[in-house]
Design brief:
The structure holds two protein chains of two kinds. Chain A is mostly helical. Helix content of chain A is 73%, strand content 1%. In chain B, strands 7-6-8-9-10-14-15 form a seven-stranded mixed beta sheet, with helices on both faces. Chain B starts with a helix and ends in a 5-residue tail after the last helix. The chains are: A mainly alpha, B alpha/beta.
Chain lengths: 315, 426
């Protein structure tokens, strides 16, 4: 019954990285703290995409839940005066999971391009609704309250560090839970669904149920990511649900690969780093720099960045 | 012998240049982060003309070649350096890059932002990082209505006067009109523009009939269905805040059906297509330029200077984003130098520059800029409207009317929407 093989060092590694962030955080430059926070937020969404990708499903609309998370966090501040980061993330995750639970009944029936396009369509519906809602600032969006934690507003000097550490802790916990989930029978169905769904059904398992569960977990993770990004940036707008935002998450997931729950975070950090460097060195063609780096990864590391770490083990 | 002569010339030249280099290094440069769209749909009409204006104006200022009182070198003798950043990628990216500008590049100030979404998102961050930030173009009046800032400024007027001005112009030129229709993009700019215009018209023409308001989505490109509806509405004027590509598409698709011949077009951002579509814009179309810019710029030393230098370098006339960028830099330069003088000639802090810019008044290529709203952080300017007339294959404006800044802008402390709803009370 030992599902977790002795060679799996994911959990200790997550702990070590979290500890490193806590210890080394104060030494990092201020801009890097913010960049890392955004990378963690995007990594959360990407982790959700990875879950789906393991089952052979690509959602072109994961930004839907990122946006729901962000707007939940924003609404808590605007209508209930709640600015606590943890509460925002919990509520963001719950709201996203609830919507996914309902939409999942529909989406879990579809595969391949239909799954991708239907998820994108749903996300664009939310974009359209938000773009029409002038009380929520339409496409200009609204600002959200400054982040607090346990009712305390960290002093200016430390607020970026506190947001990063809070985000990292939640992300590490989420990654550990996803890791546990992947070891459960339901979680282990993913590659089987990808390879041959009919066999899965013959085995007596329900592929639809498995996909529905994944879809809800992915939504909850994206909701957390959206809430974290909202509180860090201090502003939300309908672009969070736009299809290009979803595209960004797919970019990160492909860059990272699906071999580890830590991969999406690494991918997101690399993505943000490449982008900010590209912004600096070629303000007119930064998109091209990003595109070329993705092409290079696809050509030379078809299994994503993480294959750099796991290649030796596999061989 | 020959090489010896060469060597001595080189030494002499080096000696001659040496003191200059030392002098130039004396004052640390002023580093400005410049942010504008360099990619995407807003790049060619707004971002690139603004970036070009920034590069041109800063280069001329560094050479001391701007008209007085902007003729000191750089900012108070310190050379200006720029870090140019693309505004694309969404607010999250923009906030990240703003932080990078301030905390990694250590810029002394940031001048930029075209999208109102960027401005709304950046303003609190600028305040958090205590970095002087001047928005040069974005339109929404919300920035200084919803919050007050110490480090954030906007040296361009907000978008309220564009539509209030259009309505007042209609009152002057078409006092007997009865019905209006609108076609605006379905995003914040389009919604706000139509909202302001409709409310202003209802106040100025109490019996006006609002036939239809079409809101196609941004960058839709195809407007035949909307054109049919608007034509069926038979309104006297059709209001549109479309810009650049979308406006071009609208005018091109409307031309064969004669929409803007049957109903007068009121194109509040019409200046963005004036140079491109001379043949398709029917004479008598009402064109706006978001203030006294481009064809409506007053004839002063600064506008003549900007037009001449811009035309020489880029072979086109500057459009309103270029004017706005130029005046954004000019206003900050004056404030910097005023603060430097008050600081005994030493380099001023961000707080000192902000204090000098607050409530200041200065002259630019669009005329007088008064930092009158938002506790001295938001500019007001006069506005102007006119009608198009093709002369020699080029669109010019006739019947130009100018409206003073205080007439087309709300007074301090009153929200733009409330001011319009309340009937422009001062």
């Amino acid at each position: 019954m030992s599902n977790i093989t002795p060679r799996d060092r994911t959990l200790p590694m997550l702990g070590a990285v979290l500890l490193a962030v806590i210890v080394l955080g104060p030494l990092l430059p201020k801009w890097a703290l913010f960049l890392l926070t955004i990378a963690i937020a995007k990594g959360m969404v990407s982790l959700g995409l990875m879950l789906q990708l393991r089952a052979g499903l690509v959602s072109f609309g994961q930004a839907l839940y990122y946006c729901i998370g962000g707007y939940t966090a924003g609404s808590l501040g605007r209508f209930f005066d709640i600015s606590d980061m943890l509460l925002q993330m919990i509520c963001g995750a719950s709201a996203a999971a609830f919507v996914a639970l309902i939409l999942g009944f529909l989406l879990a029936r579809y595969r391949g391009i239909f799954y991708g396009l239907l998820s994108m369509a749903l996300s664009m519906i939310l974009y359209g609704l938000l773009a029409k809602s002038e009380s929520l600032g339409s496409t200009d969006g609204i600002n959200i309250l400054p982040s607090t934690i346990f009712g305390i507003r960290p002093v200016q000097e430390w607020v970026r560090y506190v947001v990063l550490v809070t985000g990292c802790s939640v992300a590490a916990l989420a990654a550990a839970l996803v890791q546990r989930y992947l070891k459960t029978p339901l979680g282990q169905l993913s590659p089987a669904i990808k390879d041959n769904e009919i066999r899965v059904e013959y085995m007596g398992a329900s592929a639809r149920k498995a996909i529905h569960v994944k879809y809800v977990i992915a939504a909850a993770l994206s909701g957390i990511g959206g809430a974290l990004a909202a509180t860090a940036v201090g502003h939300i707008d309908p672009d969070m649900a736009y299809w290009t935002t979803s595209g960004e998450f797919i970019f990160i997931t492909i860059l990272a690969g699906t071999r580890s729950v830590a991969a999406p975070f690494l991918g997101a950090i690399l993505f943000e780093t490449i982008r900010t460097v590209a912004f600096d060195i070629s303000p007119n063609t930064w998109q091209m720099t990003l595109g070329i780096s993705l092409l290079l990864v696809i050509v030379f590391l078809p299994e994503g960045l993480w294959s750099l770490f796991s290649r030796r083990k596999a061989a | 012998m020959h090489s010896l002569k060469k060597l001595s010339t080189a030494v002499a030249a080096a000696l001659a240049l040496a003191p200059v280099t030392v002098l130039a290094q004396d004052a640390a440069p002023v580093k400005i982060g410049v942010v504008a769209f360099l990619s995407g749909a807003a790049a060619s009409p707004f971002g690139v003309p603004a970036r070009n204006a920034a590069e041109l104006v800063i280069e001329l200022m560094n050479a001391g070649k701007a008209p007085a009182p902007y003729n000191t070198k750089g900012f108070g003798g310190s050379k200006i350096e720029t870090v140019i950043i693309d505004e694309s990628g969404g607010t999250t990216t923009q906030v990240t890059e703003f932080r990078n500008l301030v905390q990694r590049h250590n810029v002394d100030m940031v001048i930029g932002y075209i999208s109102s979404g960027s401005c709304v998102g950046i303003a609190p961050v600028a305040e958090e990082l205590k970095k002087l930030t001047n928005f040069f173009d974005c339109g929404t009046p919300r920035i200084f209505e919803d919050a007050s800032y110490k480090y954030v400024f906007r040296t361009s007027p907000h978008s309220t006067m564009d539509n209030v001005g259009a309505a007042m112009y209609l009152k002057d030129v078409k006092p007997n009109m009865k019905a209006i229709a609108g076609i605006n993009q379905n995003y914040a700019w389009g919604q706000d523009s139509w909202g302001d215009f409709e409310a202003s018209m209802k106040h100025l023409f109490p019996k006006i009939a609002v036939k239809t308001s079409q809101m196609p989505k941004l960058f839709a490109g195809q407007y035949n269905a909307e054109i049919s509806t608007v034509m069926g509405a038979k309104a006297d004027v059709v209001h549109s805040s479309f810009w650049d590509g979308d406006l071009e598409a609208l005018v091109l698709q409307a031309a064969p059906r004669g929409l803007f011949k049957k109903s007068t077009g009121v194109l509040t951002a019409g200046e963005t297509i004036m140079a491109k579509l001379a043949k398709q814009i029917p004479d008598g179309t009402i064109l706006g330029a978001r203030g006294p810019f481009g064809p409506y710029a007053p004839d002063n030393a600064y506008s003549r200077w900007l037009k001449k230098e811009f035309q020489e370098r880029y072979q086109v006339l500057p459009t309103y984003p270029s004017y706005q960028m130029a005046q954004a830099i000019m206003g900050v330069k004056l404030a910097w130098e005023k603060a430097q003088a008050a600081n005994g000639g030493k380099r001023p802090s961000n707080e000192q520059v902000a204090a000098a810019l607050e409530h200041s008044t200065f002259e630019g290529p669009g005329g007088t800029v008064k930092m009158a709203l938002g506790k001295g952080h938001q500019a007001i300017m006069e506005t102007a409207y006119g009608m198009s007339k093709v002369v020699g294959g080029k669109v010019t404006v006739t019947k130009v009317k100018r409206y003073p800044a205080e007439v087309v802008n709300p007074p301090e402390g009153v929200k733009a929407a409330d001011w319009i709803a309340g009937g422009f009370k001062h």
